[in-house]
Amino acid sequence: MLKNHKKSWFHYLLKGIIYFILLCTILLIITYLYAGQIIKKTISTVIPPITQTAVSVDDIDLSLFSGKIGLRGLAIGNPDGFSDKNIFQMGDIAVSFDPKSVLTDKIVIYSVTISGTSISAEINTNGQTNIGILNQNIQKYMNSSTSEKKASAVVSTQKKKNEPSKTIIIQDLKINDSKVSLGIANQSMTLTLPNIHHTNIGENDQTKNIPEMIALILSYFSDESVKAVLNSGSTLFNKSLQKAQDLINVGQNSLKQQTDQVKGTLDKIKTIF
Residue 155 above 70 pLDDT? Predict the structure, then answer.
């Protein structure tokens, strides 16, 4: 009887372990299937308040266990009053992170590499650039975010601290091969932005939550784009002057040819009389 009791106890234990493994497997499958959708929703929720524009993303490749995220087709919409749909069409985004840190208050990202971003610069009828407006929106968000953080720090000293929000650290950030297409007065040119490299972002006393970190990364794009557009102004102006001079030269040559033809015709008429 004792033997049967031990057998029954072992049977229930084994059955419980099997059910537990199955439950964990189902939860992991559900997490894997829906984690990409969660990230997409997060992107579409977090970025628009920063840029004041629409945001979309085509594809997300996520590997939770190896700590890898790949994003493709992340597009930042144009501010109102500009013709193109998007101002930023980001290329491949590769993220490597510590999976265990996701369960803590500080998410550790080993590296972020953004490659091949296309930026479309425009000027509206009021003489404003979409790059300038976007940069202002980002800077406004970053400044207000800093003010709110200081205010919340004061409040936290006066009352019991609640559950802390997640902060984020990026140990290595690289933004490579970004280009700006610019057109002014029927002149167009492509500008290559310098590669951007930062390390240990969010370390020490420079703590940042997820929206603040995204705003900072977007500011790197907008800052460099504004600099590139401003520096290109003289080049485009010179190109416009050269084109105008070429048109004048063509007109002068055409007028000279017509004058010569008329003169030749008059000379022939004089020979007849």
Answer: no
Q: Which two tokens stand for residue 114?
A: 């953004």
Per-residue pLDDT reduced to its tens digit, 130-139 = 999 999 999 9
| pLDDT the model gives residue 246 | 44
Helix, strand, or coil here: 100?
Answer: helix
C-alpha closest to that of 189 among 227, 233, 241 = 233
For the segment 195-219, the average pLDDT, to the nearest whole number, is 91
Which of 232, 203, 198 is CA-nearest to residue 217? 198
Q: What is the Cα–Cα distance from 66 to 179, expressed in whole angstroms? A: 31
Mean pLDDT rounded to a whole number for the chain = 76
Cα(174)–Cα(158) distance, integer angstroms: 40
C-alpha span between 22 and 18 (Å, rounded)? 6
The crossing angle, in degrees rounded to 10, of helices 210-272 and 2-46 is 40
What does the alpha-carbon distance between residue 38 and residue 33 come to, in Å, rounded to a whole number? 10
Which helix H or strand E contains 27, and what residues bound it? helix 2-46
Question: What b-and-e string marks burial along 121-150, b requiring 16 or more CB atoms within 10 Å of the CB?
Answer: bbbeeeeebbbbbbbebbeebbeebeeeee
Beta bridge partners of 120: 181
Digit-coded pLDDT (tens) for 79-130: 988 888 999 999 899 999 998 888 888 999 999 999 999 999 888 878 788 9
Beta bridge partners of 224: none
Contact 170, 213 (CB under 8 A): yes
Please state the pTM of the whole predicted model. Answer: 0.70
Q: Which two tokens stand for residue 5?
A: 């009791």
Q: Using CB atoms within 10 Å of the CB of residue 96, give its burial: 0 to 12 exposed, 13 to 18 middle, 19+ buried.
A: middle
Rg of the chain taking only CA atoms, in angstroms: 31
